[in-house]
Amino acid sequence: MPLLSSYPTSCGGIKDVTDSRSILADPRRPDMKDRLNQLKGREMFRPFAPVVTVEDQKKFFELEAPSPYMLIATQLQTQFREFLPAIMHIDGSSRLQSISHQKEPFAIDS
After folding, report:
1. Between 101 and 45, whose confidence is greater?
2. DSSP strand E in the chain: where?
3. Mean pLDDT: which of 17-21, 30-34, 38-42, 76-80 is highest?
4. Partners of residue 24 on adjacent β-strands
5. Of the candidates 48, 42, 36, 50, the residue with the CA atom closest to the CA atom of residue 3
6. By CB neighbour count within 10 A (0-12 exposed, 13-18 middle, 19+ buried), where does 89 fall?
7. In this predicted model, what pLDDT tens digit does every residue of 53-92 receive, in sequence order?
8. What share of the chain is helix, strand, coil (3-state, %, to 5)?
9. Percent of residues, the chain, with pLDDT higher than 90
10. What is the DSSP string of 14-42?
């Protein structure tokens, strides 16, 4: 499965580096965490950080407030842990970024 990256054509006015580039990968694949870590030269225990719309955040994560800057680690909802292994730490947590349709018009609802 290929990895995709996304870079905006203009970075003017972007306040956070997470808004300006992304690697898109399938969080359902157990091997994806290791593949991304090898690609980025990171420690092998690190999961990758998921991006979710604010509208879908509570569906997948135990977090009420938006997390636009990936500063908050929260628990992945129990029913999704088996299906999304690449975004989860060993304790079931994820450090997510939530985005809104207002700020990121490319965002697609799940």
Report:
1. 45
2. 4-6, 22-24, 51-53, 73-75, 93-95, 97-99
3. 76-80
4. 4
5. 36
6. middle
7. 888 999 999 999 999 988 999 999 999 999 999 999 999 9
8. 25, 20, 60
9. 39
10. --SHHHH-EEE--TT-TTHHHHHHHHHT-
Spatial contact of 93 and 62, defined as CB atoms under 8 Å apart: no
- Angle value at C-alpha 46, between 44 and 50, nearest 5 degrees: 140
Q: Which of 5, 8, 100, 84 is nearest to 52 (CA)?
A: 100
Two tokens, residue 101: 């349709």
Q: Provide the total of helices (H) and of strands (E) in the chain, helices listed first.
A: 3, 6
Report pTM: 0.72
